[in-house]
Write a structure and sequence with these properties.
The complex is a heterodimer of chains A (about 290) and B (about 775). By secondary structure, chain A is of the alpha+beta class. Chain A folds into 2 domains: about 120 residues, 2-Layer Sandwich (Uridine Diphospho-n-acetylenolpyruvylglucosamine Reductase, domain 3), CATH 3.30.465.10; about 110 residues, 2-Layer Sandwich (Enolase-like, domain 1), CATH 3.30.390. Chain A contains 11 helices and 14 strands. Chain A has a 5-stranded antiparallel β-sheet with strand order 4-5-10-6-7. The termini of chain A are far apart. Chain B has 3 domains: about 200 residues, Aldehyde oxidase/xanthine dehydrogenase, a/b hammerhead (Aldehyde Oxidoreductase, domain 3, Alpha-Beta Complex), CATH 3.90.1170; about 325 residues, Aldehyde Oxidoreductase, domain 4; about 150 residues, Aldehyde oxidase/xanthine dehydrogenase, molybdopterin binding domain (Aldehyde Oxidoreductase, domain 4, 2-Layer Sandwich), CATH 3.30.365.10. In chain B, the strands form 6 sheets. In chain B, strands 3-5-1-12-9-10-11-20 form an 8-stranded mixed β-sheet, with helices on both faces. Chain B has a 5-stranded mixed β-sheet with strand order 7-15-14-13-8, with helices on both faces. In chain B, helix 18 packs across helix 19. The longest helix of chain B has 28 residues. Classes of the chains: A alpha+beta (about 290), B alpha+beta (about 775). At the A-B interface, helix 11 of A face helix 4 and helix 20 of B.
C-alpha cells in the first residue's frame, strides 16, 4: 500500500511537461524502482506523481541517419541489453545495463530514471560520460541538448530545469565508432547491489597508440566524473604496463572519494586506482578489434 | 522402504502454486493493524509521549505506551519450561518500555484500521527522550563503572559466565606440546533474513480465551510465554501456526505474540494484526551474537593435538533473549570433535546497546567452530602437516567418550567424512595446482565440526504424534513438531510409512499446529525435530499398526501376528516381502467396517508422547577452493563440498537441499553479511536488503553435498541432526583457504573486500 496523494498519467512527453509545469511539486514516475522505494519509506515529496512510464515516444532505441545512436529515456535496462543496435554500437552501455540490480528491476527501470534521479552510483552515469553522450531535454521553452558531463551538478542534483523531462540519450557516430570500451561495476556482490565504484573507459587507437582516451568514474566524487589527468597520462602512449601505471598515479588528481560507513575513502581510492589501470587496459584491448 | 528415498514434498504443490496460506493470507474481516513507535536512540529514557496528533489521524483507534501495559517482565527465548527456576530464561522484557535499550526499541504502539495509517500515525507520536551513554562494545559494557542497561538485575551488565575443562588440563596440554598457536578472532552480527517477515494476529471469541495466529517455529512454547507475559493461565491462549516462510531461529523467540494478544484484549476481542517490515525484522527482532574470542591450540610433532582453549565474549545486545545459552551451547556442541585433546572453554555474555541477539542457525556453534578450526589450521601449518591429515589424526572415532558429556559416541563418521571429502574434492591434486603468487591466487581450505541432535540434557525433549485411520484407508498424521519450510512434514510421513509398511501416498500430514488440538512438542530448533520426533512417530506408527492388524485379525478370523500391512492392503506376514503377496483385505474395507459396524470396532487412532533422553553428536566437514583477486581485495568461492555424518538420511533430496541452503547461509556469514552498528551512537546502519549483503545466486558456487551414513541407535530410524550443521564449517574453511592462497590469516568476519583491504595492506600485498 502506497501513500499516493496525487497521480496523473501523461500520454506524451509534451503532456508530461505541461503537467509538471502546472504542478511544480509533482515528480516524474518512470520505472518506479527508485520512486516507489521512497514512497514505501514514507519520504515526503514522493506522493504527487506524473507517470511517464507509458509515454511511447520515450521508448525507442534507433540509429539516426547521421549515425547518432538515440536511446529513448524510457528504454529499460532490459531493452538496452537486448537491443541489437546498442549491442553493436555501444556495448559499454550493455555492460552497464546488465550490471543493474536483478532481472525484475532491469525489466522496469529506465536509463532516464537512472540518470535523472541524480544518484552518484547510477550504473549508466559513467558509461554515458565515457561515450560523451548528449542528453536531449524537453521543457516548457522547447528542446535543448546538454553534454552528459554537464548533467550531474551535485549529489542527487541534475541540470533539469523545472518542468523538463529527458527525451533521449544521444551518442554521436564519432563518439562510438572505432572505440573499445568497458564498464566494471565494483560492488560487494555480483548482483542486486549498488556500485562501491563504477568505472567506464573508452579508447580509440591509432597506429597502436591510444589516440583518444576517456575514463569516467561513479561514486568517486560528489558527481560522476571524467578523469582528465588520467586521460592525459594515457593519451598518445602504447597500451602497456608503463602507461597504465601512469594512469593509476594520475587518476588520484581526478577523483575525490569520501569516507562513509559503506566504505572508507582510502579503500575507494585503492579500488579506483586499480580499476583505472585494468579497465583502460581492457578497453584498449577491445579497441584493437573495433572497426573504424 | 520409505526411508532413504526422495519423495515429492507434501507441500510442494501448495507452495509452488502459491495456494499455501501463510499467516498474512488468512486475515479476518474487521482486522485492525498495529505499528510500533520505535526509539531512534540506542540508549535513552522516555521523558514524555504525546499521542494527540497520532490519535487525530482518521482511522487510528488507539495508541498504547509503557504506562498501559502490564508491569511484569517476561523472558522471550523459545526454550521449554524449566521445572528448576535456576534454568529459567532471563525475564527482562516488558510489552513496551520507557527505557530504550537499543536503536529501535519499542516505546509505543498504534492501532489503526489499515497498516499504512498505523505506520503514518506511528510517525506522529511525539516522544521526548533523555539520552543515556551508549554501550556498543561488550568489553566496555563489562568494565568497572559502566552504566547499567538493566539496573534492576544487579550491579553488572554480565548476564552469564561459565567455564569447563574437558579431557584433562590445558596447562598440561600446553606443556606436552611442541608447538602452540594463538589467535584473537571476531565474528560479525548476522541476521536471519527469512523470507516471511515476522507477523501475527490475535482475536477473541469469548471472554476467556485469546487466539493467536503466528508465523512461529514454536507454537506450544509461544502459548506459555504469551500467557506469562499477560499473567493468564496457559490454556487461555491458543496458538495456531499455519505455513511458515522460514525462521532460522529468529522465530524460536516470542516476538510479536504477547503484543497482539494484549491488543485484542484491550480492543474487546477485535482482531489485531502486527506485521513487521523487512527493516524492522532486520534491526528489531533477533540477530546472531557477535563473538570476540581468544584461543590457543597446542600440538605435538607427531601430529597429536593436545589441547584447544577458548575464551569467548558474546554480545547479546539490549535484551537477553537466548542470552548466555548461545555461548554455552556453542562450546558444548564442539566438545565431541577432538575427544582425545583437552578442550578448555570459558565464556561470558554481556548486555550492550546493540540489536538483540538470539538463536540463529547453529546457536553459537558456528562462532566457536570458527575459532577452533582456525586454530587447528594454524597448528597444522605450524607443524608443516597437511590440513586434512592433521584433522584425521585427531577427530573422534566411534566408541570414544565425549570428554564433556562423558557419553560414549555410538556413531562418529567424521573420519569417513574427511576421507570421502578428500577423495571427492581431489584435495591433494587441487592443493598442488593452486597458484599462490601474483594478482590472482588460489587456495584450498578444510574445516570440520561436531554438533548436537537435541537439547538434552539442558532441556526436556518431548515429541508428540497422533495418527488416525480415515474411512478411505488413508492415514492422517499430526505432529507437534513444526514444518517451517525445512520439509519436516514430508520426513515425518516417510517415517510413518516405513514403520506402518504402507505407501507414502497413504499419508496426509496436518501442517498447521494448533495448541488446542496438536500433540505437544516444543518445536523447530536445535536441529532436533527429525531426531526426537522419529521416536514418537515410530512408536505411534507401531501402535496404529497393532490396532489395524488386531481389527484385521478379528475381521479375517486370523491371529493378528500372522498379518502384515503392505501398500494399501492387509497381507500375510509371511508374504510381506514377497513380490506380489495376496491381498486379504483392503485398508479401505477394513476402515469402513471399523467405523460403521453397528456392534463393534471404532475409529482406529494412535497417539504417543515420547521423551528422548539422548543427544547424539553429528559431524561433518567442508572442503573449498577459492580464488583471490589481490588488488581488488576480493575472494570468490570456486567450489565447495560439505560432507555430513547425520546418521541415516531420511530423504536424500531434501538433505541435499538442507546442506546447500545452510552452506549458502554460511558463505553469507563468512564473506558478505554483517549488520553494522555505529559504535558511538548505537545506530543500526544497514537494516535493509540492499546494504546488508546476502549473497545472490552468482555469488554462490554449485554446492556439493555428500553423506556418510552411520546408524545411530538413539534415532528412531538411525538418524541424527542435519538442519543447522551445514552452516557450521564453511566459514573457517574459507578463512583457511584464504590463508592458503595469500599467507594472510584474517581472523575477523566477514572476509569482505573492506576487511581484506585492511589485512592485505598491512601484509604488504597491495
Amino acid at each position: 500500500m502506497f501513500d499516493i496523494r496525487k497521480y496523473r498519467q501523461a500520454a506524451t512527453a509534451a503532456e508530461a511537461v505541461r503537467l509538471l509545469v502546472e504542478d511544480p511539486a509533482a515528480r516524474c514516475l518512470a520505472g518506479g524502482t527508485d520512486v516507489l522505494v521512497r514512497l514505501r519509506e514514507l519520504h515526503p515529496g514522493y506522493d504527487n506523481l506524473v507517470d511517464i512510464h507509458n509515454v511511447a515516444e520515450l521508448k525507442p532505441i534507433v540509429l539516426l541517419p547521421d549515425g547518432t545512436l538515440r536511446i529513448g529515456a524510457g528504454a529499460t535496462f532490459t531493452d538496452i541489453m537486448e537491443s541489437p543496435v546498442v549491442r553493436e554500437c555501444a556495448p559499454l552501455l550493455v555492460e552497464a545495463a546488465a550490471s543493474v540490480a536483478g532481472p525484475q528491476i532491469r525489466n522496469v527501470g529506465t536509463i532516464g530514471g537512472n540518470l535523472c534521479n541524480g544518484a552518484v552510483s547510477a550504473d549508466t552515469a559513467a558509461p554515458v560520460l565515457a561515450l560523451n553522450a548528449r542528453l536531449r531535454l524537453l521543457g516548457p521553452g522547447g528542446e535543448r541538448c546538454l553534454p552528459a558531463a554537464e548533467f550531474h551538478t551535485g549529489p542527487g542534483k541534475v541540470a533539469l530545469h523545472p518542468g523538463e523531462v529527458l527525451l533521449s540519450v544521444d551518442i554521436p557516430k564519432d563518439d562510438r565508432q572505432g572505440w573499445g570500451g568497458q564498464y566494471v561495476k565494483y560492488a560487494m556482490r555480483e548482483a542486486m547491489d549498488i556500485a562501491t565504484i563504477g568505472c567506464a573507459a573508452a579508447v580509440r587507437l591509432r597506429d597502436g597508440r591510444m589516440e583518444d582516451v576517456r575514463l569516467a568514474f561513479a561514486v568517486a566524487a560528489p558527481t560522476p566524473v571524467r578523469c582528465p589527468a588520467a586521460e592525459a597520462a594515457a593519451r598518445g602512449r602504447s597500451p602497456d604496463e608503463a602507461a597504465f601505471l601512469a594512469v593509476r598515479k594520475a587518476v588520484v588528481e581526478d577523483v575525490k572519494p569520501r569516507t562513509s560507513w559503506r566504505a572508507t575513502a582510502e579503500f575507494r581510492l585503492h579500488i579506483i586506482r586499480t580499476l583505472a589501470g585494468r579497465v583502460l587496459a581492457e578497453a584498449a584491448r577491445r579497441a584493437e578489434g573495433a572497426r573504424a | 522402504m520409505a526411508i532413504g528415498v526422495t519423495q515429492q514434498r507434501l507441500d510442494a504443490v501448495a507452495k509452488v502454486t502459491g495456494r499455501a496460506r501463510y499467516t498474512d493470507d488468512l486475515g479476518m474481516p474487521g482486522m485492525r493493524h498495529a505499528a510500533y513507535v520505535r526509539s531512534p536512540r540506542a540508549h535513552a529514557l522516555v521523558r514524555s509521549i504525546d499521542t494527540a496528533e497520532a490519535l487525530a489521524l482518521p482511522g487510528v483507534e488507539a495508541v498504547f505506551t509503557a504506562a498501559d501495559v502490564p508491569r511484569r517482565r517476561f523472558a522471550t527465548a523459545g526454550h521449554p519450561y524449566s521445572l528448576d527456576p535456576a534454568g529459567a530464561d532471563v525475564a527482562d522484557r516488558r510489552l513496551l518500555t520507557d527505557h530504550a535499550r537499543y536503536h529501535g526499541d519499542e516505546v509505543a504502539i498504534v492501532v489503526a484500521r489499515d497498516l499504512l495509517t498505523a505506520r503514518k500515525a506511528a510517525r506522529l507520536v511525539r516522544v521526548e527522550y533523555e539520552e543515556l551513554p551508549v554501550l556498543a562494545d561488550a568489553e566496555a559494557a563489562l568494565a568497572e563503572g559502566a552504566p547499567l542497561i538493566h539496573a534492576w538485575r544487579g550491579p553488572s551488565n554480565l548476564i552469564g559466565e561459565h567455564a569447563f575443562e574437558a579431557g584433562g588440563s590445558m596447562a598440561e596440554a600446553l606443556e606436552r606440546a611442541d608447538v602452540t598457536v594463538e589467535a584473537f578472532l571476531t565474528t560479525s552480527v548476522q541476521q536471519h533474513c527469512h523470507m516471511e517477515p515476522f507477523t501475527a494476529y490475535a482475536y477473541m471469541e469469548d471472554d476467556a480465551h485469546i487466539v493467536i495466529v503466528s508465523s512461529t517455529q514454536i507454537p506450544h512454547i509461544c502459548r506459555r510465554i504469551a500467557a506469562q507475559a499477560l499473567g493468564l493461565d496457559w490454556a487461555c491462549i491458543r496458538v495456531i501456526k499455519p505455513y511458515v516462510g522460514g525462521g532460522f531461529g529468529a522465530k524460536q523467540d516470542v516476538v510479536l505474540e504477547p503484543m497482539v494478544a494484549f491488543l485484542t484484549w484491550k480492543l474487546g476481542g477485535a482482531p489485531v494484526s502486527l506485521e513487521l517490515s523487512r527493516e524492522e525484522c532486520m534491526a528489531c527482532t533477533r540477530t546472531r551474537h557477535g563473538f570476540r574470542m581468544h584461543g590457543k591450540a597446542a600440538a605435538r610433532k607427531d601430529g597429536t593435538l593436545t589441547g584447544v582453549s577458548l575464551d569467548v565474549l558474546s554480545n547479546t545486545g539490549g535484551y537477553a533473549s537466548h542470552g548466555h545459552s548461545i555461548a554455552a551451547a556453542g562450546g558444548g556442541k564442539l566438545a565431541a570433535l577432538y575427544p582425545r585433546a583437552v578442550f578448555s572453554y570459558h565464556a561470558r555474555t554481556a548486555y550492550t546497546n546493540y540489536p538483540v541477539a538470539g538463536a540463529l542457525r547453529g546457536y553459537g556453534a558456528p562462532q566457536v567452530a570458527h575459532a577452533v578450526e582456525c586454530l587447528v589450521e594454524d597448528a597444522a601449518r605450524a607443524l608443516g602437516m597437511d590440513s586434512v591429515e592433521f584433522r584425521l589424526r585427531n577427530v573422534a572415532r566411534p566408541g570414544e567418550v565425549n570428554p564433556y558429556t562423558k557419553k560414549v559416541l555410538d556413531t562418529a563418521g567424521i573420519v569417513e567424512c574427511l576421507e570421502k571429502g578428500r577423495d571427492m574434492f581431489r584435495w591433494s591434486e587441487r592443493r598442488a595446482a593452486c597458484l599462490r603468487t601474483g594478482d590472482l591466487r588460489r587456495g584450498v581450505g578444510v574445516a570440520c565440526f561436531s554438533y548436537g541432535s537435541s537439547t538434552y540434557p539442558a532441556s526436556v525433549e518431548h515429541a508428540g504424534a497422533r495418527m488416525i485411520l480415515n474411512q478411505d484407508g488413508s492415514v492422517t498424521m499430526m505432529a507437534g513438531a513444526t514444518e517451517i519450510g525445512q520439509g519436516a512434514d514430508t520426513a515425518f510421513a516417510q517415517m510413518a510409512a516405513e514403520t506402518l509398511g504402507l505407501d507414502f501416498s497413504c499419508f496426509r500430514v496436518v501442517s498447521t499446529q494448533d495448541t488446542d488440538v496438536t500433540p505437544f512438542d516444543t518445536g523447530a530448533y536445535a536441529s532436533r525435530q527429525c531426531y526426537v520426533a522419529s521416536n514418537a512417530i515410530r512408536r505411534c506408527a507401531e501402535q496404529l499398526r497393532g490396532r489395524i492388524l488386531a481389527a484385521a485379525g478379528r475381521m479375517l478370523g486370523q491371529p493378528a501376528e500372522s498379518l502384515a500391512l503392505r501398500g494399501r492392503e492387509v497381507v500375510r506376514a509371511a508374504e510381506r516381502e514377497a513380490a506380489s503377496p495376496r491381498a486379504l483385505l483392503s485398508l479401505r474395507d477394513l476402515a469402513l467396517e471399523s467405523y460403521y459396524n453397528k456392534e463393534e470396532g471404532g475409529q482406529i487412532t494412535a497417539e504417543v508422547a515420547h521423551k528422548t533422553r539422548a543427544n547424539a553428536p553429528c559431524f561433518g566437514c567442508t572442503f573449498t577452493e577459492i580464488e583471490v583477486d589481490v588488488p581488488l581485495c576480493r575472494m570468490r568461492v570456486v567450489d565447495l563440498l560439505n560432507v555430513h555424518d547425520s546418521g541415516r538420511i531420511i530423504s536424500p533430496g531434501m538433505a541435499v537441499g538442507q546442506v546447500q541452503g545452510g552452506v549458502a547461509m554460511g558463505i553469507g556469514w563468512a564473506l558478505y553479511e554483517e549488520l553494522l552498528v555505529d559504535d558511538r551512537s548505537g545506530r543500526i546502519l544497514n537494516n535493509n536488503l540492499l546494504d546488508y549483503k546476502v549473497p545472490t545466486p552468482p555469488d554462490v558456487p554449485d554446492i556439493g553435498a555428500a553423506f556418510v551414513e552411520t546408524h545411530e541407535p538413539s534415532g528412531g530410524y538411525g538418524n541424527k541432526a542435519l538442519g543447522e550443521p551445514p552452516i557450521v564449517s564453511p566459514a573457517p574453511a574459507l578463512r583457511n583457504a584464504l590463508l592458503d592462497a595469500t599467507g594472510v590469516a584474517v581472523d575477523e568476519l566477514p572476509l569482505s573486500p573492506k576487511t581484506l583491504y585492511r589485512h592485505f595492506a598491512a601484509a604488504g600485498l597491495l
